[in-house]
Design goal:
The protein is 33% helix and 21% strand. By secondary structure, it is of the alpha/beta class. The protein folds into 3 domains: 113 residues, Udp-n-acetylmuramoylalanyl-d-glutamate--2,6- Diaminopimelate Ligase, Chain: A, domain 1; 224 residues, Mur-like, catalytic domain (UDP-N-acetylmuramoyl-L-alanine:D-glutamate ligase), CATH 3.40.1190.10; 155 residues, Alpha-Beta Complex (Protein-Tyrosine Phosphatase, Chain A). The chain has an 8-stranded mixed β-sheet, sandwiched between helices. Strands 18-19-23-20-21-22 form a 6-stranded mixed β-sheet, with helices on both faces. Strand 1 and strand 2 form a beta hairpin. Helix 4 packs parallel to helix 6 and helix 14 crosses helix 15. It starts with 8 loop residues before the first helix and ends in a 13-residue tail after the last helix.
Length: 565
Amino acid sequence: MTGHPSSSAASMASFISSVNLTDTIFLLLVFFRLACRRIINLCGRVDANSQNNVGDLSVQRDVSAPWWLGLSGEPSATSVDPIPARSIQFDSRKVQNGDVFVAIKGMVGDGHDYLDEAVRNGAIALILDQGRSRADIPIPQYEVRNSRASLAKISTAFENYPGDSLCLVGVTGTNGKSTTSFILNSILGKASLTTGMMTTIETRIGDKVLDNGTRLTSQEAPYIQSKLATMKSSGCSHVIIEATSIGLDMHRLDGCKFDVAIFTNLTSDHLDYHGDLASYVRAKTLLFRKLKENGHAIINGSDEYARVFTEIASGQGAFTSEYNINNVTNIKMSTSGTAFEYTFAGANNSEKIQSRLVGNYNLENMLAAIQTAEILGIKHDFIRSGIEELEQIPGRMEVVCREPFTVIVDYAHTEDSVEEVLGTLDQISHAARKIVIVGCAGERDRDRRTGIGRALAHGANYALLTDEDPRGEDSMQILDEIAAAMTRAGKTEGEFFEKIPDRRAAIRRAFELAEEGDIVLIAGKGHESSIEYKSGVIPWSDVDTAIEVLNELGLETDPISNSER
């Protein structure tokens, strides 16, 4: 649809023909109200040539995009005024003239408390939870059953349903989402497909990379839908999206229908938000309820929750496939990578594949990507080269140097992930001493601290407990809780671990202790570019800091090149 909603009978008929009967009736009512009230006179507040800029990418936006279709089914839908919008906002501070403001309740604040600010900044309409409208506000207000769910629906309508024209692959699980996404993206790229990707680490649109500085894996719906629209206009055919339990539960992905859904694994996490494990599992399964009819579910068959996801996917009419580590043979692993043999679907013989990634859990991630690629019709040669030519993934078992001792940066920040990484290092070199630098995030599930302490006591030779993201909590209190779990496991402070809140000082101490042949693991932050304190956020990089400290100590290293990393 182009131009304003009342532009011409021909353009209106063309648009109506593209929607279903319910929306057609709804839209006819909208156009009738528009003609009667001559709302079009208000459109001078909106720039008809507005753009959505993404780095040096931009997509021409039709300001008449029917965001109001996102209210279909709500009690307020019958009284909607189809005022063209500049954008959809949920942060009152970012509202500009011509924006629709959707008031949502966040983790800390509530958008309903900032309606006046949204109006002052130029909002043309407010979307509110039922019972939250105010008589003293002079612009249209529409009450909905769930403003978070409506934010997704309105954002999707505003962007003209971009996901419907793309092959969407969703990846969920406690661990392995980013790695699986990167592997699959590399494979699709080798097949000459233009792809998009939204992960914890970054967003990619073709060959353009946008840093994810929000710490949110699944960002809010306006961001997701805006990026999908840009990916579509940039020629992307396939898009890979990480789907977190919190993002799914908060309706951030409600506007997406997936062709493929991948389940990597599940262990206890985010219970500070979900409350219990059952709620966490239910949230993860929401991805599989978003599968298209005849979609595909790729499930880690070795996980104890595999059956739960299989049953839900089957109930959606999806095809299901399982993978597990037994699908590969002749596994050989070192700090340089992993070699294995795999028999592709329809092949008679196995083929050798060499990857720069390390660990059995990364083998599982590769299998998830391989099976997805096979379902998408990607040739075996492209799958193999996509894996073999993939460089190290930022903050995921990222090797910084191998001499005089090995330094690895990894995102492991839960009991299970720390155990997995330490188990992998033991598999690479059982004789090597493993020195671990790790902490735990403040204002998050406190059980993580006990779990990390147990994992260290079981798998590390020495530990430096340090800051991860204390946020509003006292750093030493967090470290004391980790230390208490280690002490209960029979480990003594000074002999087995130290507490050094300053992360740079902890890294330096680890390097001073390390000897030739040791492995130093810097865990918890991975790719992240900051540390959050009560006093504010400071820039940070585990990789850059490790290289700087190695140089300060005058150690002759063989740092891994940026291209290899």
